[in-house]
Amino acid sequence: MTDALLGVYNRAPLTVSHGQGSWLFDVDGRRYLDCVAGIATDALGHANPVLVKALAEQAAKLWHVSNIFRIPGQEALAERLTGASFADVVFFGNSGSEAVEGALKTARRYHFANGQPERIDVIGFAGSFHGRTYAAINAAGNPSYVEGFGPRLPGYVQLTIDDEAGIAEAIARPTTAALIVEPVQGEGGARALTGEWLKRVRDLCTQHGVLLIYDEVQSGMGRTGKLFAHQWFEGVEPDIMAIAKALGGGFPIGAFLATREAAKGMVAGVHGSTFGGNPLAMAVGIAAFDEIAKLETLSHVQAIAALLKSELQALAARNPDIVSEIRGKGLLIGLKLIPNNRDFMALARDHDLLVAGGGENCVRLLPSLLLSEAEALEAVKRLELACGTARERLAKAA
Ligand SMILES: *Cc1c(COP(=O)(O)O)cnc(C)c1O
User: Which NCBIfam families did the record assign (predicted)?
Assistant: First the structure.
């Protein structure tokens, strides 16, 4: 392995050669069942022919033009996204962090446009993940992501999800601009917020003129069996929402969506991107959207998620010394473990199953939305084998 790469990743000793659907092949031809899917990104599986075709056709026509020109693909994808959500307008970037960054800028600009530039504070929550830019790390406040990067930015307030009184008090402050939260916390360990929690926060934000921002970078685009996770609940729509990951089915795209009112400060010249919304990304994004937003895809996700939930709960009941809880929503699934989650990921890999890590000692399953029933059962079988190996290890260590 070269030392020419910055060492910021804990990489598994696995070199992927290619993928097909829910399967990845390493350079030695070994085949893995992929329940990581690029961390909820390859939502339609690997080498999906619909996406391959969209990319190849666009690649032969036009890759990139500046946003100083009209880009028809952006208009088409924005129409789809606004047609399927609370939003009126969309801005395209290239990543989840950029989407979050734009969402936060939009919120502050809204209050500026309203003649209240003092409203800058953003409420964020412990256990959140919003990406790696300065705004994103300050909004999430994870100590290990902010340490050593200079002073914390002003205007960020950190609370815990369970601190009802603190949340109400912070929303009511005259300097509060926005509240940002993931309806299902992803990296934090697949923690799904309840409809009651979201409704209470929505109502408080409305009452005090605070903008509600959802980070659906991981939970959005079909992951939970609705196009967006918050759509499981009535009356909880946000003012602004960040999405990315599955939006491009593996091609880098991010976007933030907003109501026209919330976006009113974002006028010509105040924000932009060189690559954001380029024709290649839009061609794949449109193809991915049309596949994911299909009723049959979303109902497939709901069915496979229900199957996995009951199978995994049975697995947890059979292995109470290894798995303490099954959590999450849809195909954003967390297994809270008793043995170390990083060790368990390696054991799963030994059984040709790829799973992702997560907070609170979880491993996450974030498979392709097209995972078949047979593949779902195969994943459970391999997890059971990994539980067996984990038990042997624990016995040996004792
Ligand atoms: C992955 C993720 C991000 C950051 O996305 P990048 O594309 O890595 O910048 C932000 N928010 C959530 C909820 C995520 O899961």
Answer: PRK01278.1
Beta bridge partners of 122: 156, 178
For residues 269 and 315, state if they share a domain.
Answer: no
Name the domain boundary from 274, 292, 310.
292
Output the ligand 1 site: residues, CB below 6 A: 95-97, 100, 129-131, 182, 186-187, 215, 217-218, 244-245
Q: What is the CA radius of gyration of the chain?
A: 21
Q: Which residues contribute to the annotated binding site for pyridoxal 5'-phosphate? A: 129, 215-218, 274
Contact 127, 161 (CB under 8 A): yes
Residues annotated in a binding site: 129, 132, 215-218, 273-274
Domain span holding position 30: 16-34+295-397
What is the per-residue pLDDT across 238-274, written as a single tens digit (0 to 9) for each? Answer: 999 999 999 999 999 999 999 999 999 999 999 999 9
Question: pLDDT for 89-115, tens place per residue?
Answer: 999 999 999 999 999 999 999 999 999
Asked if residue 124 belongs to a domain, the reply is yes
| 179 lies in some domain | yes
The answer to whether 102 touches 136, Cβ cutoff 8 Å, is: no
**Residue 245 per-residue DSSP state:** G
Annotated binding site for N(2)-acetyl-L-ornithine: 132, 273
Total number of domains in the chain: 2
Q: Separation of 96 CA from ligand 1 center, angstroms?
A: 4
* pTM, full prediction: 0.98
Spell out the residues 6+ positions from residue 39 whose beta carbon is closer than 8 angstroms to its own.
186, 218, 245, 356, 366
* pLDDT tens, residue by residue, 269-290: 999 999 999 999 999 999 999 9
| Residue 217 CA to ligand 1 centre (angstroms) | 6
